[in-house]
Design goal:
The protein has helices spanning about 1-25, 30-55, 60-110. It is an all-alpha fold. Helix 1 (about 1-25) runs antiparallel to helix 2 and helix 2 (about 30-55) packs antiparallel against helix 3 (about 60-110). The longest helix is centred in the last third of the chain and has 50 residues, at about 60-110. The model has no long low-confidence stretch (mean pLDDT about 95). Pfam families: YtpI.
């Protein structure tokens, strides 16, 4: 189906976007938070690819591969959600500390 192809491409684009953000940041908590988000995106890519494989199975091997891809994708999504929830408060504190330091720096230079 065309909807699964769209979802596959969409989740792959989000994975690439989060990985680019991951490599551009220097803050450790934000890196781990973005890694969790990219894990969710990659897991959804694999999950939707597995569902797409099961839509028109060509053989028993395709069915087994589709089921394995769905399980791996769900596992990656689950691990990514756990990491996202765990590192979100640390990333918020880190971002607030950086913002506060920038504000102090602006007031000192002016």
């Amino acid at each position: 189906m065309a909807i699964f192809i769209f979802l596959i491409i969409f989740s792959l684009m989000f994975y690439v976007m989060y990985k680019v953000k991951y490599f551009r940041t220097h803050l450790p908590a934000e890196k781990k938070w973005l890694s969790g988000k990219s894990s969710i995106a990659l897991g959804s890519f694999v999950f939707f690819f597995g569902i797409n494989t099961l839509i028109n199975p060509l053989s028993n091997v395709a069915i087994v591969v589709g089921i394995i891809l769905i399980l791996v994708g769900l596992g990656s999504i689950w691990a990514g959600v756990k990491a996202y929830r765990y590192y979100l408060p640390f990333a918020i504190k880190e971002a607030e500390a950086v913002k506060e330091a920038e504000m102090k720096e602006k007031t000192v230079t002016n």
